[in-house]
C-alpha cells in the first residue's frame, strides 16, 4: 500500500479513525482555522511558484485562491480573511531577510519501504548559505504551545527521512514556521531514529493492509468524529 504522513498519523491516532476517513470516505469538516490555513498554504505555493517577489502578487494569490467554506457567518469570514492578509504581510517582510535559496515548494518524495510505498509532500525545502538543506513546514497555529511537540517532531522526522531516502540528501535543519506569529522553530535533523521510524511506518502499513482497524479510544476526546463514531467514549 501507499502510506503518507497523514495516513500514518491518523492510523497512529486511532485505526478506526483511519477506516472512517480513508475506507468509508468520511470527511473532517472544515473549520475557520483549517479553512484559513488551507487558503494561506495555497497562496504561498502560488506566490513562490510565480517567482514574482512582490507583496501585491502575494495578496493577489491569496484573494484568488481563498476558500470561503468553514466559517460560521460572513462576519467571521471577513475577520479571518483580514487576519490572513496581515499574516502574509508579515511573512513577506520576513522573507526579504532570508538568505536561503528555495529548492522546492510542495516538493514530493516517494520511496519503497518493504512491500509498501511511502509518499509525502514537503511545504518547502531551502538551501542555506552554507549549502546545507532545511525542510520547512508551515503551520497556521499561533505558536508552538498549541502544537504538541511530539507531533511536530514526528512530522518533521517523517519528512526528513523522506528526503534522505528519496533524494539521498541528509537535511541539516527541520523547521516549523508558525505563520500567524512569524516564529520559526528549528531542530537539527537526527538520523539516529531513522530505523525505528521506518519500522513504525512499515508496521502501520502492514496492519492497514491486513484490515486491522481496532479502535484506540484513548484518542476519542480529541477526535473530530467523536460525536458520530459508534466506538467513541467521548461523545461531546
Ligand atoms: S471517536 Fe474514538 S474510537 Fe472513534 S474514530 Fe475517533 S478516536 Fe477512534
List keywords for this structure.
flat, 236 residues, 6-stranded mixed beta sheet, binds iron/sulfur cluster, alpha/beta
Give the tally of β-strands: 6
Q: What's the level 1 CATH class?
A: Alpha Beta
Uncertain segments of ≥5 residues (pLDDT<50)?
none
Helix content: 40-55%
Overall pLDDT score: 92
Choose one word for the global shape: flat
The helix-strand sequence is EHHHHHEEEHEEH
Give a verbal description of the structure:
α6 links the parallel β4 and β5. This protein has helices spanning 5-13, 15-23, 32-50, 55-65, 74-97, 149-167, 194-209; strands spanning 2-3, 101-113, 116-127, 133-139, 173-178, 184-188. The model has no long low-confidence stretch (mean pLDDT 92). Strands 1, 2, 3, 4, 5 and 6 form a 6-stranded mixed beta sheet that branches. Helix content is 45%, strand content 19%. α1 (5-13) packs across α2 (15-23). It is flat, with a radius of gyration of 19 Å. The protein has a single domain (2-222), classed as Lambda Exonuclease, Chain A (Alpha-Beta Complex), CATH 3.90.320.10. The protein has 7 helices and 6 strands. The two termini are 34 Å apart. It has 236 residues and is of the alpha/beta class. Iron/sulfur cluster is lined by residues 14, 16-17, 20, 215, 217, 219-220, 223, 225-226, 229, 231-232.
Amino acid at each position: 500500500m501507499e502510506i503518507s504522513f497523514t495516513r500514518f498519523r491518523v492510523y497512529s491516532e486511532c485505526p478506526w479513525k483511519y477506516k472512517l476517513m480513508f475506507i468509508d470516505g468520511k470527511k473532517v469538516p472544515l473549520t475557520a482555522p483549517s479553512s484559513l490555513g488551507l487558503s494561506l498554504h495555497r497562496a504561498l505555493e502560488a506566490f513562490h511558484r510565480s517567482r514574482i517577489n512582490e507583496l501585491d502578487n502575494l495578496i493577489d494569490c491569496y484573494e484568488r485562491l481563498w476558500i470561503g467554506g468553514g466559517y460560521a457567518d460572513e462576519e467571521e469570514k471577513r475577520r479571518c480573511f483580514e487576519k490572513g492578509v496581515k499574516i502574509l504581510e508579515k511573512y513577506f517582510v520576513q522573507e526579504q531577510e532570508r538568505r536561503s535559496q528555495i529548492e522546492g515548494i510542495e516538493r514530493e518524495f516517494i520511496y519503497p519501504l518493504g512491500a509498501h510505498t511511502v509518499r509525502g509532500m514537503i511545504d518547502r525545502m531551502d538551501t542555506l548559505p552554507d549549502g546545507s538543506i532545511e525542510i520547512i513546514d508551515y503551520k497556521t497555529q499561533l505558536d508552538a504551545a498549541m502544537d504538541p511537540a511530539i507531533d511536530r517532531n514526528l512530522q518533521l522526522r517523517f519528512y526528513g527521512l523522506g528526503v534522505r531516502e528519496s533524494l539521498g540528501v541528509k537535511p541539516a535543519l527541520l523547521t516549523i514556521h508558525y505563520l500567524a506569529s512569524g516564529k520559526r522553530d528549528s531542530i537539527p535533523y537526527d538520523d539516529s531514529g531513522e530505523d525505528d521510524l521506518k519500522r513504525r511506518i512499515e508496521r502501520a502499513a502492514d496492519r492497514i493492509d491486513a484490515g486491522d482497524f481496532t479502535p484506540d479510544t484513548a484518542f476519542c476526546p480529541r477526535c473530530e468524529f467523536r460525536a458520530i463514531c459508534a466506538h467513541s467514549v467521548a461523545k461531546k
